[in-house]
Structures are given as structure tokens and as C-alpha cells.
TrEMBL record, chain A:
Family: Belongs to the thiolase-like superfamily. Thiolase family.
Keywords: Acetylation, Acyltransferase, Endoplasmic reticulum, Fatty acid metabolism, Lipid metabolism, Membrane, Mitochondrion, Mitochondrion inner membrane, Mitochondrion outer membrane, Transferase, Transit peptide
The protein's name: Trifunctional enzyme subunit beta, mitochondrial
EC number: 2.3.1.155, 2.3.1.16
Residues of the Thiolase N-terminal domain: 40-310
Biological source species: Scleropages formosus (Asian bonytongue)
From TrEMBL, chain B:
Official protein name in the record: Trifunctional enzyme subunit alpha, mitochondrial
Span of domain 3-hydroxyacyl-CoA dehydrogenase NAD binding: 364-541
Gene Ontology molecular function, alphabetical: enoyl-CoA hydratase activity; long-chain (3S)-3-hydroxyacyl-CoA dehydrogenase (NAD+) activity; NAD+ binding; transferase activity
Pfam families, A to Z: 3HCDH, 3HCDH_N, ECH_1
Length: 451, 763
């Protein structure tokens, strides 16, 4: 287990981008509709169970997971396979054999080969990017029905030969005579055989994500205790939601040779005492982030069905929420790597003309969320770093991630975005709220409304 | 074995460490009331940890001044006496300086070696008490930790440093002709091992935090923080303090071990170093290498080795005694005096004395992508200035771009920058063949061929396309600026910026103003030069300005010496033996024989027979045969890729044969040859001051050392006259004058100084 956690440092994938999205419940009186802009609705959202990497999904490739989510969505909504206009998926670590994983998944799910599909990547908000791509396609009148989602598997990853070895092998292809080949082969040294793992660090700063996160918590003075408490909260809430059957977006997936999986397996409520015993993983010995306060490596896929409102109604669907406004912002990748929500939240609120108090449901990605909460509550930060007159405000924690989050449910990089949106929508329904705000680091801001 | 590196004083007098010692006046602690209100050091007890904060309110950096030391002693005594305190953290509240060293003025104020020795012993005693402290002390280091600062830190029980780029550790005393005099020569070898310790102390180089951790110089690293709820600087120091307190508590509770388990390599090294024979070999090898590099002209490195050796072989008592006594002796040497003078000069030449320019240069254009042009571009783009590099041919432009890429890529390979930073820096470079967008350029530096007609043509082309307030700087080594400016519509915007090749290595920039150049133009040129990291002298206009003008008569003399039958290798060893980093024959090859011929002819015309000596025709004959120096692969020497051993060019010897002159035995001893070369250089420098080309002797010394490689141990031509004695120099020159005539006629200012020995260039 520990190795699993420690490898979270492989999470270079949250980059400097930030995202937030505003959702509106479809039944709201105030839908924040904009004149001349099409209403875009979320009809349904699903996901495979999120599992610890190296467990039950061990033999799956990414497109297998994506296919499972896609099929699950089609079945749940009884959407005819030929009614889909377009498919977009987000992913972070690409399997080179299936670089357009959206297309492979769609073909495997029996969707017509005439339906185009593409894959996007934007670190931890890749699925958010897929969703907003879909929104763009619908808003522009290109499509009416789009499936967007995300997928990630960390049970397998492309480990390459070293550059020198690859170079030799490629030259070998061109060698014509035996002697040329032998000369090339004789140049291979032991060092050439060292494999190259997917980069563990930010390309531009050479810093691992965990390291960056630990510096960020220190910059905002987030204590070890606060982090342990938050991790404890996340696991407890997730457990409660799971037991109460609130995680209705989770599909049952049949894994060949292993049986049916229908529950997330990373939720492990423990005690504060146990959490206190854990040692820091990234900055030793004085860091504050432990395996509990960072997400574990996760496999999983998610999908949402988006339509124009007219189309949804015409097809007889009851849309769950309007996708109203979204924002992507970018920050310095060194010192503000994980501060996305702080930057994106106020922007999306301003665009929509509502305030923090109007929001009923917050679904934030749990990457360094505490630092973000402190940043939003700091006048100094607002004035110095965000160029705002005053702080964004205190985020009501009683409305935040009530059904667990990335720390407890897991964080398959490419898939988390769609999980956040679906969770926000389902919570709006359940709690009877009007507005939901989704935010994640690596980039952007979306706001969701319930219909 | 030990990676002992050269003592390259010249290249190491690097501006990046200007806070090594500061020049602020010796404390105003006349009133002993200072005891009550401490201004430099205070402390706070957090639980059972005393946090000692140091901050010199009168300076940007902390130095171990008398005031600082006395307050530190008081504070330490209080902490030791306080039973509630179990451990301590030592930290500076300055954002980029822990302690930058001892107060140099305190040393310079001493009149005798004994006085300096006493200072050293006081320091040794203070750090001895720190080392033996019953309560563990953690040094929390952020920013420069140099000289006495490092000696302080290594006396503490534990060291934590931030991984900031500003955090550097080192013992730069050697660059001032001194040795680490507060226990450094004794503690450092124990801490990092004999080879690394000698390397640090003999080179004086700065060590970055991550390297320091690897060497065992610090125990832990702390990452600098980005913006959070406070400014990054403020929060980083706060965080460093929090972490250091954690370690202080950890040491007390024995959770944090003070000694690290040694790696196998270290154990092996320790074992090997335990053998007396091996140590002896090391001392010998290092000694030999130092002698080879310094020609015995610098006493400090030898004393450092001896001090380390005494401590290890005869025990600490003898070691500490040797260290303090020799610190005192070294402080009184002329070499140390010269190096300290240069240090002060360098600091003075790193300031803009012409005010803030009205308009900041944000876009700079460079004409000519040759060695010089590309070099200027390289030191400009990494300062965030958009730089247009223009050439007339695609081939030339490509060559220039390759040179810049290589320069930055070499830094990447040495890991001083990341590949990302390299690419980002290169994005500031715009290479083009035309004058597109020149209307948005704030300053143009031309580095085209040294020909007045071409310079005029370029000037007119530029003035036709640039905005009216754009500055035109010309990079020439000898053409008078006023002649170039004659073609300008706005001579107030024309200025000379004389860079030295290779631009990324040579620190000097000589800025030349004409009587028409406006003050704002000068301020702007100086501002750009400072951004490029240059040490700047501003001189008046005239043929050869200051630097070229001093070099020309020395080169003329060198040619004569060669014509008189001295072998080029012999000539080189005579000049390096005098302290020049590069021998004169090699220097001529580096400058380029064609350039030398050009300059010699031009200046010969301007100054007449006084600039004679060797025959210019001989240089021309070399150029005709293609012997243009290093750039053509053949000059006085033959240059071959990959080998360092160079052979004298037989073709050159042939030419020498046909220009043979008969030496005069009376003035041809080795020493006479040396003084013939140097006295012409020095006389011309003094004449430049006399004529007002130079505005101060300080700039003259800095220019000669940093631009031309005048021996740093002599401190520059003016300090040389002060130390050697103007009268003695004049005597020598008179003797040479009898043989060679007006080449050796001392100038009036030099004669004045010879007559009155109380006259000194440096007070």
C-alpha cells in the first residue's frame, strides 16, 4: 500500500492550469440563462468504481475502462447508439497503442464508426476539458448530443527504452547488411538498458508534484493536524455516502475473470491517531503531507451525457442541470501550481453575476484544498497575487464535498473532472439546491446549475 | 583525487558576491549605552528554544562587525545562563543574507599584524564557545553565508539551509589575499574532508545549498516558498525558522542524530586520509599546483595549505595559533591590500553614477552577429531584455545563433540553468536580416567591422529607421567615438560601449562618452551594462580610449622583444611570471594579429613615435600569410583542436628572422624585459589620468585588471605605482629611455609622484 501512495509523486499531471464550472439545477427559478446562448444540459453522469491501481483493474487497458463507462452511460439512459453526435475523452498518461482512447472506446462500445471521437489532455482537469469541449460543440451548433468523459489507469504505464537505446533501435531498422547491424549492436552499453519511467516531475520546473504541494501547504501555513483532519473528514463522508447509497453514479463493471465490481475500494475511514502516526512522504523529515493527505494512485473512468436543452426535451429526457459558465485560468507552475480553485472561483462567479453565498453545492478537487481555502480567505493573497481588491471569502465547508472527494474516492487523473460534475449535479438534486460550483486545479472553473 | 582547482583570482572576483564584505564605516558605538538597546541581535524564547535573530539595520547585508560580535556575545551569555532555554536557532531576518563575512573595514583599520591576529583570536574564541555549547545551536541559513559567516555556521551543532538560488556558502577570503581566520582552516577539513576543504578555501568559490548538503556542509535543506498569506521572502524565513526549531527540539530529544551514518565511499576516503603518507602527497600536490597557478605571487593559498596541515599534523592548538598569526601577516601584505582595493573598486564600478535613465531599455538591437555581437546578445537575453540580433548574411546570423545556443546549453549541462530556462531565455532573441520593427527598439549596439566608413553607413541606416530617442552605441576598440558620431544627426544619443571578448566571461565594459553625449544617454548605457552583469568604467573619448591605449604600447614592446630574439614561449612565461593571467604572445593571438596590426597603425598615427617599438610591418606580414591568431588557427602559435599544448608557429619564426633586431644587453635581462613591458603600460595609464581620459585611478585599476588582465596581485597600474614607488619606476624608465628614446619617457603626472613620495593615487 505504501508504495502505492508514494507513487503519487508521479502525479506531475496537475499543471499550472485551473478550472471552475457553474452548474444550475434545471428546476431553479433563476437559471442564469443568457440571451442568444443555447441552454446546455447534463442528462446523466456515470463512472466505473474507482479502484486502487494494481488491484482488480490490473489487466485492463485504459480503453477497456473508458468503454465500460461509455456502455454504462448508454445503458443507463437507453440512448440509441446512433443518437450520439460526438465523443470526447480526457486522459493524462497516454497508452501509445491507443493514443486516441476516445475512439477506441467508442468502437469497442459498438458505437457507429461514423461517429467521430477525440481525446484531450490537460492534466488533472482533462475530463473538465472534455466536458467544456462538448459544451463548445453544442453551443456552436455543431452537435446536439455529446458524450464527454475521462479515463486513467495507473496499473500500467508506458515505460520506455532510454533515448540512446531507442536511437540505436531505430537506426538498426535502416541498417542493410549484417555487419552494419552488428556494428550497431556492439555499441549498446549496459546503461542503454535503463528504462525511462513517465516523468516524475514538472517538465518546466523539475519539481515533483508532492514536493510542490508540500511547499504550498507551508506557504499557507496549513498544519499537519489540519491536513489529517481533512483527510479523516473525506474518508468518513465518503464511507457514509457509500453506505447510504448516495453514490448512484457508480456503475457495476464486470471484470473478466474477476467478477463484478460495484464499489470504490479506496475508502478507508481510520482514526486520527492512526493518521498522526504516518510519516511525511515528499519532504523528509519536516514535510507535512502524508499518504493520507494525498490521493492514492487510482484506475477509473467516467462519462457524462450532454445535450442542447431542446434536443433533450424532444427526446423525452428530464435534464438534471444546466452547465452555465466555466473558466480556465493559468498560473506560475512553480509556486502556484495547485491554487486553481482560488483563482477560478471568483472569476466564474463574476461572469455569472452571483456570489459565493448563492452557491448550494461545492465540489472541489481535493488537491491541496486547504491551501486554497486559506488563499480565498486572505486579503493579502487577493491583493498581491490575484489583483483583486479584497478576498474571495470564506468557503462554507458544510457545503463542500459532502460525499467524499479525491482523497477518499481516489483520483484517476483523466477521469476526476467528470466525477466532480456528476457528483455536484446529484447533490443538487438530493439536497434541493440551486447552484453548484465545481473547481479543480491543473486548471479551470466551471459552475453548474440544476434544472 | 582531490579536485583542487586553480586560484583564478581574476575570474573569481565575480560580481555575484558583492556582499562578501561591505564597506560601511566602522560602527558608531562610541556610546556604550548600546549595551541596553541591542540593534543588531535580539532573541525570543519559543517554548524552550531561543531564536536568535540577526539584522544589521545600517546595511543590506550582515557582517561580523565589532557591534555584531559584542551583541552576539551578550545574547549567547544570556542564553547559556537561562535555564528555561534548552537549545537555540540562529537566523538572519534579511531576505538574502545570513552573514556575508567579517567587516573588512575592521581589518583594514588595523595598523599591525598583531592587531589583526588579535581580531582573529577573538573570533576563534567566540566560535570555540559556540562549538562547545552545552545547548545545541541550529544555524538556519538563507542567503549568503560566506567567510566569517560560514565559520560561524560550521561552529554550530546543526545547519539547515534554504534551497534558494541566493543561498550560497563559501570561504572567499583567498580572493582578498587572506585565509579563513576564525577557525575555518581547522573546522572545515574535519567537516567535509581534506580535499573538499582545500578546494573550497583555495578557490573561494560559492557552493549552492544542494551541493553543500551533498558535501556534508549542511545537514538539511528547506525549500523556499512561493506566495501564500505573506510575501514569499517573509514566509520563507518564517518557515525556515519553524523547521529549524523543529530540528532543535529533535536534537534535544535525540530524534535527530547529529552525525550522519557515513557512506562506504566516505569511510574509504576517511581511511585513506588517515594515512600520513597520503596526506603528505596531497599537501605536496596541492602546493605544486598552487605554485604553478600563482607563480608564487600570491601568499594566501600557501598559508591556507600550511594552516590546514599544521592543524591536522600538530594538533588544534598549533593549528589555531598558526591560523591567527598568519591571518595577521597576510592582512599586512601588499597582495591583500591590492585585492581588497580591487574588490572595493569593483563594487564602486557596479553602480550607476549617472542617475536613472528617463527610459528603460526594453528592446535592444545588436548589429553584427559575430563573436562580439552574439556574445553581447547572450548576456542580454538572460536578463529578460528582448534582443534583436541583425546581420547581413544568413550564414553570419546562423553562426551567431549557434554560439548563443551553445553558450546557454553549456550552462544547462553544468546544471546552472534548466533546459526550460534555456529555451525560455532564447525566446527573447529575435534574429533577422533586415531593419524590420527597428522603430520599437530603445537602443542599438553596433558590433560591425572596425572600419569608419562601414560604421558611418550603419549609423545612417539605423537613424533612418529608429525612433528619435533611440540610443546608438558603438562597440569599437579603437576608433574615436566623435569620428563615428560625426555622421549622426543626433550626436547626443551616440556613445561607445567597448565590450571584451569573450563577452560572457570578461566582466569589463568600457563606456566612452564624447563631449556631445548626453548624461541620459550615458545613464542608459550604464544601466544596460549593469543589467548585463558588467563592471563598468566610463572614460573620455580619444584614440584607443583607455584600455586599448594602455595595451598598444605594451604590445609594441612585446613585438620588439620578439624581434630581439626572445622566444614567444619565453615571452609568455616572463609576463605570466609577473602576474598576467595570459602571456603577451598568447594575448596577441587571442586579440587577433590583424586587429593588433590595425590598432597599432591607427594609434601609431594618432600618438606618433611614442607608440613605436616593434615593427608594425611584421604584424602585417603575419596577416598577409594568414597568421591572424587563434581564430584562424595559426598566429604566434599553432592551434589544434583538442590539444592544449601549442607549438610555436614555424612560419612566424621565419618572419621573425627577417625582422630581427639586435638586443641591447643593458636592458635585456628577464626582469628588464618584464619592466619594459609593464612600465609602458603603466605610464600610458597614468597619462590617461593626466589627460582626463580617466576620471579616477580606481576606474583605471579596475579597467586594467578586469579588461586586460593586469596582475590582480598588483591591484592595477595605479596601485602598482603606489606600492612599487613612482621614483623607482621612473628610474627604470629613464634607463630604458636612454636606449629606446621617447617610448619610455615618463609622463608629467608620474614624474610628479616620483618627486614627492607623499603623493599617492590611492589614499
Amino acid at each position: 500500500q505504501v508504495t502505492n501512495y508514494v507513487m503519487v509523486s508521479a502525479k506531475k499531471f496537475a499543471r499550472e492550469n485551473l478550472f471552475s464550472l457553474l452548474l444550475v439545477q434545471t428546476k431553479s427559478k433563476k437559471t442564469l440563462a443568457k440571451p442568444g446562448v443555447k441552454n446546455i444540459v447534463l442528462v446523466e453522469g456515470v463512472r466505473t468504481p474507482f479502484l486502487l491501481s494494481g488491484t482488480i483493474y490490473n489487466d485492463f487497458m485504459a480503453h477497456d475502462l473508458a468503454r465500460a463507462a461509455l456502455l454504462g452511460l448508454l445503458n443507463k439512459t437507453s440512448l440509441p447508439k446512433d443518437a450520439v453526435d460526438y465523443i470526447v475523452y480526457g486522459t493524462v498518461i497516454q497508452e501509445v497503442k491507443t493514443s486516441n482512447v476516445a475512439r477506441e472506446a467508442a468502437l469497442g462500445a459498438g458505437i457507429s464508426e461514423k461517429i467521430p471521437a477525440h481525446t484531450v489532455t490537460m492534466a488533472c482537469i482533462s475530463a473538465n476539458q472534455a466536458i467544456t469541449t462538448a459544451v463548445g460543440l453544442i453551443a456552436a451548433g455543431q452537435c446536439d448530443v455529446v458524450v464527454a468523459g475521462g479515463v486513467e489507469t495507473m496499473s500500467d504505464m508506458p515505460i520506455r527504452h532510454s533515448r540512446k537505446m531507442r536511437k540505436t533501435m531505430l537506426t538498426l531498422n535502416k541498417a542493410k547488411t549484417l555487419s552494419q547491424r552488428l556494428t550497431l549492436l556492439s555499441k549498446i552499453r549496459l546503461g542503454y538498458l535503463t528504462p525511462e519511467l513517465p516523468a516524475l516531475t514538472e517538465f518546466s520546473t523539475n519539481e515533483t508534484m508532492g514536493h510542490s504541494a508540500d511547499r504550498l501547504t507551508a506557504a499557507f501555513g496549513v498544519s499537519r493536524r489540519e491536513q489529517d483532519e481533512f483527510a479523516f473528514r473525506s474518508h468518513s463522508l465518503a464511507k457514509k455516502a457509500q453506505d447510504a447509497g448516495l453514490l448512484s453514479d457508480v456503475l457495476s463493471v464486470n471484470v473478466p475473470g474477476k467478477g463484478i465490481v460495484s464499489k470504490d475500494n479506496g475508502i478507508r475511514p481510520s482514526s486520527m491517531e492512526q493518521l498522526e502516526k504516518l510519516k511525511p512522504v515528499f519532504i523528509k523529515p519536516h514535510g507535512t503531507i502524508t499518504p493520507a493527505s494525498s490521493s492514492f494512485l487510482t484506475d477509473g473512468a467516467s462519462a457524462v451525457l450532454l445535450m442542447s436543452e431542446e434536443k433533450a426535451l424532444a427526446m423525452g429526457y428530464k435534464p438534471k442541470a444546466y452547465l452555465r459558465d466555466f473558466v480556465f485560468v493559468s498560473q506560475d507552475p512553480k509556486d502556484q501550481l495547485l491554487l486553481g480553485p482560488s483563482y477560478a472561483t471568483p472569476e466564474v462567479l463574476e461572469k455569472s453575476g452571483i456570489t459565493l453565498d448563492d452557491i448550494d453545492v461545492f465540489e472541489f478537487h481535493e488537491g491541496q484544498i486547504l491551501a486554497n481555502l486559506k488563499a480565498m480567505d486572505s486579503d493579502w493573497f487577493a491583493q498581491t497575487c490575484m489583483g483583486r481588491k479584497s478576498k474571495v471569502g470564506v468557503l462554507p465547508i458544510e457545503k463542500l464535498n459532502l460525499w467524499g472527494g479525491s482523497l477518499s474516492l481516489g483520483h484517476p487523473f483523466g477521469a476526476t473532472g467528470a466525477r466532480l460534475v456528476t457528483a455536484a449535479v446529484n447533490r443538487l438534486k438530493k439536497e434541493g439546491g440551486q447552484y453548484a460550483l465545481v473547481a479543480a486545479c491543473a486548471a479551470g472553473g466551471q459552475v453548474v446549475f440544476d434544472l | 583525487m582531490a579536485s583542487i582547482r586553480a586560484l583564478g583570482v581574476l575570474s573569481r572576483m565575480n560580481s555575484r558576491r558583492p556582499c562578501l564584505f561591505t564597506g560601511h564605516a566602522v560602527r558608531n558605538f562610541a556610546s556604550s549605552a548600546a549595551v541596553l538597546a541591542r540593534t543588531h541581535v535580539n532573541y525570543e524564547v519559543k517554548e524552550d528554544v531561543a531564536v536568535i535573530r540577526i539584522n544589521d539595520p545600517n546595511s543590506k547585508v550582515n557582517t561580523l562587525s565589532a557591534q555584531m560580535e559584542s551583541e552576539l556575545t551578550q545574547v549567547m551569555n544570556e542564553i547559556w545562563a537561562n535555564d528555561a532555554v534548552k537549545s537555540a536557532v540562529l537566523i538572519s531576518t534579511k531576505p538574502s543574507c545570513f552573514i556575508a563575512g567579517a567587516d573588512i573595514n575592521m581589518i583594514q583599520a588595523c595598523k599591525s599584524a598583531e592587531e589583526v591576529t588579535k581580531l582573529s583570536q577573538e573570533g576563534q574564541m567566540m566560535f570555540d564557545r559556540i562549538e562547545k555549547s552545552p545547548k545545541p545551536i541550529v544555524a538556519a541559513i538563507n542567503g549568503s553565508c560566506l567567510g566569517g559567516g560560514l565559520e560561524f555556521a560550521i561552529a554550530c551543532q546543526y545547519r539547515v539551509a534554504t534551497k534558494s538560488k541566493k543561498t550560497v556558502l563559501g570561504t572567499p577570503e583567498v580572493m582578498l589575499g587572506l585565509l579563513p581566520g576564525a577557525g575555518g582552516t581547522q573546522r572545515l577539513p574535519k567537516l567535509v574532508g581534506l580535499p573538499s576543504a582545500l578546494d573550497m578555501m583555495l578557490t573561494g568559490r560559492n557552493i549552492r545549498a544542494d551541493k553543500a548538503k551533498k558535501m556534508g556542509l549542511v545537514h538539511q535543506l528547506v525549500d523556499p516558498l512561493g506566495p501564500g498569506l505573506k510575501s514569499p521572502e517573509e514566509r520563507t524565513i518564517e518557515y525556515l525558522e519553524e523547521v529549524a526549531i523543529g530540528f532543535a527540539k529533535g536534537i534535544l530529544s535525540k530524534k535527530i542524530p547529529l552525525t550522519k551514518e557515513k557512506s562506504l565511499m566516505q569511510k574509504v576516503q576517511d581511511y585513506v586520509m588517515g594515512i600520513e603518507f597520503v596526506r603528505k602527497q596531497i599537501y605536496n600536490t596541492v602546493n605544486k599546483r598552487v605554485m604553478k597557478q600563482t607563480k608564487g605571487l600570491y601568499p594566501a593559498p600557501l598559508k591556507i595549505i600550511e594552516s590546514v596541515q599544521t592543524g591536522i599534523e600538530q594538533g588544534p592548538e598549533a593549528g589555531y595559533l598558526f591560523e591567527s598569526q598568519n591571518f595577521g601577516k597576510l592582512a599586512m601584505t601588499s597582495e591583500s591590500n591590492a585585492l581588497i582595493g580591487l574588490y572595493h573598486g569593483q563594487v564602486a564600478c557596479k553602480k550607476n553614477h549617472f542617475g536613472t535613465p528617463q527610459k528603460e531599455v526594453k528592446t535592444l538591437a545588436i548589429l553584427g552577429a559575430g563573436l562580439m555581437g552574439a556574445g553581447i546578445a547572450q548576456v542580454t537575453i538572460d536578463k529578460g531584455i528582448r534582443t534583436v540580433l541583425k546581420d547581413t548574411t544568413e550564414e553570419g546570423l546562423n553562426r551567431g545563433q549557434q554560439q548563443i545556443y551553445k553558450g546557454l546549453d553549456d550552462k544547462t549541462k553544468k546544471k546552472s540553468i534548466t533546459s526550460f530556462e534555456r529555451d525560455n531565455t532564447l525566446s527573447n532573441l529575435i534574429a533577422q536580416l533586415d531593419y524590420q520593427n527597428f522603430d520599437k527598439v530603445d537602443m542599438v549596439i553596433e558590433a560591425v567591422f572596425e572600419d569608419l566608413h562601414i560604421k558611418h553607413q550603419v549609423l545612417k541606416e539605423v537613424e533612418a529607421v529608429v525612433a528619435p530617442d533611440c540610443i546608438f552605441a558603438t562597440n569599437t576598440s579603437a576608433l574615436p567615438i566623435k569620428d563615428i558620431a560625426a555622421a549622426s544627426k543626433r550626436p547626443d544619443k551616440v556613445i561607445g560601449m567597448h565590450y571584451f571578448s569573450p563577452v560572457d566571461k570578461m566582466q569589463l565594459l568600457e563606456i566612452i562618452t564624447t563631449d556631445k553625449t548626453s548624461k541620459d544617454t550615458t545613464a542608459s548605457a550604464v544601466a544596460v551594462g549593469l543589467k548585463q552583469g558588467k563592471v563598468i568604467i566610463v572614460v573620455g573619448d580619444g584614440p584607443g580610449f583607455y584600455t586599448t591605449r594602455c595595451l598598444a604600447p605594451m604590445l609594441a614592446e612585446a613585438v620588439r622583444v620578439l624581434q630581439e630574439g626572445v622566444d614567444p614561449k619565453k615571452l609568455d612565461s616572463l609576463t605570466t611570471g609577473f602576474g598576467f593571467p595570459v602571456g603577451t604572445a598568447t594575448l596577441a593571438d587571442e586579440v587577433g594579429i590583424d586587429v593588433a596590426a590595425h590598432v597599432a597603425e591607427d594609434l601609431g598615427k594618432a600618438f606618433g613615435t611614442r607608440f613605436g617599438g616593434g615593427n608594425v610591418e611584421m604584424l602585417k606580414a603575419m596577416v598577409e600569410k594568414g597568421f591572424k591568431g587563434r581564430k584562424s588557427g595559426v598566429g604566434c602559435y599553432l592551434y589544434k583542436e583538442g590539444t592544449k599544448n601549442k607549438e610555436v608557429n614555424p612560419g612566424f619564426q621565419e618572419i621573425l628572422g627577417s625582422f630581427k633586431m639586435t638586443p641591447s644587453a643593458a636592458v635585456s635581462s628577464d626582469a628588464d624585459v618584464q619592466y619594459r613591458l609593464v612600465s609602458r603600460f603603466v605610464n600610458e595609464a597614468v597619462l590617461c589620468l593626466q589627460e582626463g581620459i580617466l576620471s579616477s585611478p580606481v576606474e583605471g585599476d579596475v579597467g586594467a585588471v578586469f579588461g586586460l588582465g593586469f596582475p590582480p596581485c598588483l591591484g592595477g597600474p595605479f596601485r602598482f605605482v603606489d606600492t612599487f614607488g613612482a621614483d623607482k619606476l621612473v628610474q627604470k624608465m629613464k634607463r630604458y629611455e636612454e636606449v629606446y628614446g621617447n617610448h619610455f619617457t615618463p609622463c608629467q603626472l608620474l614624474l610628479d609622484h616620483a618627486k614627492d613620495s607623499s603623493k599617492k593615487f590611492h589614499k
